[in-house]
């Protein structure tokens, strides 16, 4: 049977999307809409002999997620190591390439049913699948209901996930337009499936059957109702979540609900695009070296590199010219180190007003999003959108607000003192602005005070944190804690950029258990900011290929750190090191899951406010002496970070902890207020709410023209709506989890390994198959306490006095 496995076909298409500059809307529609029967009859008109279906490489019987993958690779050649098509500099046209790839993926075997869900397909037949195709054969049993549903959802998630991933890391106007065309069809399909009453009734029948008690806890949780969120495809089939998709509404209200969902998805994408475009739009060209006074060589090199990319071919780090952007690796060094106060002010104002004017103004989009979310909540019988959001989380609105206020009261006094300390220090340094420090001064003077107090310069530490050494140390830690080996597997799978690395994860027996991609560097022209982890494939018994017992998980990890400059490797700030550890924590939960039920494996089905536990837990190890010393090696001399600097780093951990805590609490409180008490179209504007919340959460009041909300992608485009509090909620969980290692003894390697295995077997292994509070208690032996978090941040005394 001629067939290319899902990952091969998907990334053939991914490579085509990246290689060609003539992406068309029709091409992506072809990708997402072709059904197998149509594809078999498709005609190909490409003049490229290199991409005729007959010339595609032969596929192999053990795909990348197979546990026996490493033992059945084809012989390696100098050009390719797997049957994935690589394109030359002159790729075939988009439509012919996709059509050829998809055609080759279609089985030649006769199909036994007219139901497209029962046919084998590589890409979802959006145009020919209706909910009735599943409904007509629904039986209230696991093999007849859940397994077919998982297969369907998996195919949807793989294709749509790849396309959205490319949009985040390889953005083009053509790709945006194609997604925009296909997106409404995707949303309509998922809504219809999520609102299927026969499916809903079948799940209820399973819940009420005499066999209920014999189901595993993972299966019971899946049925009883937690959100099934897979990449950017959400299909709601369980009891609680089905209600949130409008299944209980009458036809007229359900139609209104569906229109709201369509519009919300459209607005979310537009919000994100506006932020990206506004960020890219700002460029500051500087030719006078005096204006760059105070900036470190690494930043000057980055700015010169940006200038070269903008046509200034002779730009150098020493003599310029330099181009500064609002991308984080460019923006942050200016705010930290530029002595030019006017430059800092200009960048701060530009950053805080991104996407707030002209064609890119997100103000009206925010208003529409909040209005539609409130309408959605009212349709479902809730008072506000926060109540809808909390239905699928550990916390309640009241519990979240209670935690935020407790942490706020513990942080306010120290944050006020932080500002007084800054003013005093700036005055001691003869700064004219010492009596009127404002937003574009605090980061600069904080860095100077930290350097003075702890004699630590972030830039001077960069040579000790080269990316290769950091990754080696991170993988060594994973082996110590969790008993896994991680090795490079570059060339095994296609990648979307030459900087992307591919890794294999093996257990103690040497067998592969997972794979992941790592895309570390900033690319402002095409890649969105921030850092994230996403899934490519989940662990699944149902999706196992023939001859294997389970499909292995595959993840991607994306960061935006400073890229290599010249012959120097990527030299990281300590914050960038923490970010890598953070995202790796997410990846570990995805990859080390032992759940075979694909719909609750890894990060799937984990409550939103618990999903940050592993990521924030891993950040703690950046301050563990043995771990830090293993990664902190000078990239030229190999010298280990001096002991006195490590001690200063440890002491500096609580530096301005009140201010940093208050900043996160401001975001969380504003998010919660907008989704509980704010009335869209009422007497207050969104900016009025921001100013009001800031009275208790910002020591320096925001500027009247502050438009931070227009760039607040987390809650308007990133899934954190009425959920930003979850960062602090998860910090409580993660700090308490790390305190288990402290209690065991961080210097006792045997105890650390035993505790690490317990963490792996609970927090990392159980995924969404068990309630997160139960998982935590199983690991920790008790319910979580905020005491370790306040202690780690040096705020425990303030909390007690409050």
TrEMBL record:
Record bears the keyword DNA-binding: no
EC main group: hydrolase
Cofactor details (free text): Binds 1 zinc ion.
Keywords from the UniProt entry: Hydrolase, Metal-binding, Metalloprotease, Protease, Zinc
Cofactor field: Zn(2+)
Ranges of residues in domain Oligopeptidase A N-terminal: 131-254
Keyword Metal-binding in record: yes
The EC number(s) this enzyme carries: 3.4.24.70
Known catalytic reactions: Hydrolysis of oligopeptides, with broad specificity. Gly or Ala commonly occur as P1 or P1' residues, but more distant residues are also important, as is shown by the fact that Z-Gly-Pro-Gly-|-Gly-Pro-Ala is cleaved, but not Z-(Gly)(5)
UniProt xrefs under SUPFAM superfamilies: Metalloproteases ('zincins'), catalytic domain (SSF55486)
Residues annotated as domain Peptidase M3A/M3B catalytic: 334-794
Assigned protein family: Belongs to the peptidase M3 family.
Name used for this protein in its record: oligopeptidase A
């Amino acid at each position: 049977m001629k067939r290319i496995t899902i990952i091969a076909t998907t990334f053939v298409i991914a490579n085509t999307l990246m290689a060609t500059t003539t992406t068309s809307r029709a091409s992506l529609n072809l990708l997402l809409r072709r059904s197998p029967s149509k594809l078999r009859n498709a005609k190909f008109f490409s003049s490229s002999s290199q991409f005729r279906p007959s010339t595609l490489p032969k596929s192999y019987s053990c795909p990348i997620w197979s546990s026996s993958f490493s033992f059945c690779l084809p012989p390696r050649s100098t050009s390719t190591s797997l049957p994935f098509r690589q394109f030359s500099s002159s790729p075939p046209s988009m439509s012919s390439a996709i059509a050829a790839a998809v055609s080759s993926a279609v089985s030649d075997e006769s199909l036994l049913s007219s139901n497209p869900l029962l046919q084998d397909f590589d890409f979802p037949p959006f145009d020919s699948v209706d909910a009735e195709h599943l409904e007509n054969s629904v039986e209230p049993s696991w093999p007849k209901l859940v397994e077919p549903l998982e297969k369907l959802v998996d195919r949807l998630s793989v294709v749509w996930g790849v396309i959205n991933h490319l949009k985040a890391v390889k953005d083009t106007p053509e790709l945006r337009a194609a997604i925009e065309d296909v997106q409404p069809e995707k949303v309509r399909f998922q809504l219809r499936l999520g609102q299927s009453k026969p499916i809903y009734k079948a799940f209820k029948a399973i819940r009420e059957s005499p066999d209920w008690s014999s189901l595993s806890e993972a299966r019971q949780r899946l049925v009883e109702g937690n959100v099934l969120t897979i990449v950017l495809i959400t299909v709601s089939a369980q009891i609680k979540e089905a209600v949130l998709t409008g299944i209980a509404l009458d036809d007229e209200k359900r139609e209104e609900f569906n229109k709201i969902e369509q519009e919300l998805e459209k607005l979310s994408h537009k919000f994100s695009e506006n932020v990206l475009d506004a960020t890219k739009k700002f460029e500051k060209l500087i030719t006078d070296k005096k204006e760059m006074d105070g900036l470190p060589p690494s930043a000057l090199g980055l700015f010169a590199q940006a200038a070269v990319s903008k046509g200034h071919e002779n730009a150098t780090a020493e003599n310029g010219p330099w181009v500064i952007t609002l991308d984080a690796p460019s923006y942050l060094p200016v705010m930290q180190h530029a002595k030019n106060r006017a430059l800092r002010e200009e960048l701060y104002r530009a950053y805080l007003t991104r996407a707030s004017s002209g064609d890119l103004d997100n103000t009206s989009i925010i208003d529409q999003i909040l209005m539609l979310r409130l309408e959605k909540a009212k349709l479902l019988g809730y008072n506000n959108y926060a109540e809808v959001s909390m239905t699928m989380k550990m916390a309640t609105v009241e519990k979240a607000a209670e935690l935020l206020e407790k942490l706020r009261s513990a942080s306010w006094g120290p944050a006020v003192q932080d500002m007084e300390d800054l003013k005093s220090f700036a005055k001691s340094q003869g700064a004219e602005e010492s009596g009127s420090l404002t937003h574009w001064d605090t980061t600069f003077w904080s860095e100077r005070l930290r350097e003075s107090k702890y004699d630590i310069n972030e830039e001077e530490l960069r040579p000790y944190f080269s990316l290769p050494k950091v990754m080696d140390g991170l993988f060594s830690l994973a082996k110590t804690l969790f008993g896994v080996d991680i090795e490079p597997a570059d060339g095994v799978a296609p990648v979307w950029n030459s900087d992307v690395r591919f890794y294999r994860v093996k257990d103690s027996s040497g067998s592969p258990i997972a794979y992941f991609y790592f895309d570390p560097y900033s690319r402002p022209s095409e890649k969105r900011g921030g850092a994230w982890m996403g899934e490519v494939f989940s662990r699944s018994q149902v999706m196992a290929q023939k001859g294997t017992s389970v499909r292995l998980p595959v993840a991607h990890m994306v960061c935006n750190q400073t890229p290599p400059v010249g012959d120097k490797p990527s030299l990281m700030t300590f914050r960038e090191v923490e970010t890598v550890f953070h995202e790796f924590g997410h990846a570990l939960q995805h990859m080390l899951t032992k759940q075979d039920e694909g719909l609750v494996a890894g990060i799937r089905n984990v409550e939103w406010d618990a999903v940050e536990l592993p990521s924030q837990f891993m950040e703690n190890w950046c301050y563990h002496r043995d771990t830090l010393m293993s990664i902190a090696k000078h990239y030229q001399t190999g010298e280990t970070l001096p002991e006195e600097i490590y001690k200063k780093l440890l002491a500096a951990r609580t530096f301005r902890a009140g201010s940093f805590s208050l900043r996160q609490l401001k975001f969380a409180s504003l998010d919660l207020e907008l989704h509980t008490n704010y009335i869209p179209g009422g007497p207050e504007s969104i900016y009025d709410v921001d100013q009001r919340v800031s009275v208790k959460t910002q020591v320096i009041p925001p500027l009247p023209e502050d438009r931070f909300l227009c760039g607040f992608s987390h809650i308007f485009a990133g899934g954190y709506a009425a959920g930003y509090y979850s960062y602090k909620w998860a910090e409580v969980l993660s700090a308490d989890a790390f305190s288990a290692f402290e209690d065991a003894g961080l210097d006792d390697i045997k105890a650390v390994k035993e505790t690490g295995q317990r963490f792996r077997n609970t927090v990392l292994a159980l995924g969404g198959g068990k309630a997160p509070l139960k998982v935590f208690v199983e690991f920790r032996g008790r319910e979580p306490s905020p005491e370790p978090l306040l202690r780690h941040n040096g705020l425990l005394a303030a909390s007690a006095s409050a």
